[in-house]
Amino acid sequence: MERATFEGSFLGLAFVLAKGKPAATQDLVAKIFSPNDTLGEDELAHASPEAVFDAYEGGHLIPFLTPTLIRRLHRVLEPVTEAELRAQYDAQELNEQGIYPCVWHTDDSPKKAYNARHLVQDLVNLKSIIRHAAKAEHYILVFVG
Question: Which domains does the chain have, with CATH numbers?
Fold first, then answer.
C-alpha cells in the first residue's frame, strides 16, 4: 500500500495546480483533497451539519477518490513538470489569498518548509500515488485534519 502525507501544504499545492487552468480542471484538482464521495454517507444523508462534522472527525465518514476520478487526475497531473509548478508558485499571492498556512516564502533551502521546493516534493509524491492507483485501479482514502 502506498501513502503520502502533505504536511500543511495541500491547500497550497491544490491552489498552484489549479492556477490559470480551465474551470473543469480547477474542479478536478479541488477534488484531490476534498472528494465528493465518502464511506459512511448513507446513514448521514439527513443528519445535521454538526453530526456530519462529528462523524468526519471521529473517522466515521471517510472521503475517497474513485478509480475513474483517479484516472482523470492522472491525465491532468502527469504532464505537470516541476518547472511548471515553480513558475506558477508565488509566495506573496498564496499569502494574500489566505492559503493555509499563510507563511509561504521564497527561501528554497532544504531546512525550510512552505516554499516552492516543498510544493515540488509534494507534486512528486502526489503524482506517484495517483500514478500507482491509476495503474492498479485502486481507490484512495483521503484524510485531512
Answer: 10-141 (3.40.1760)
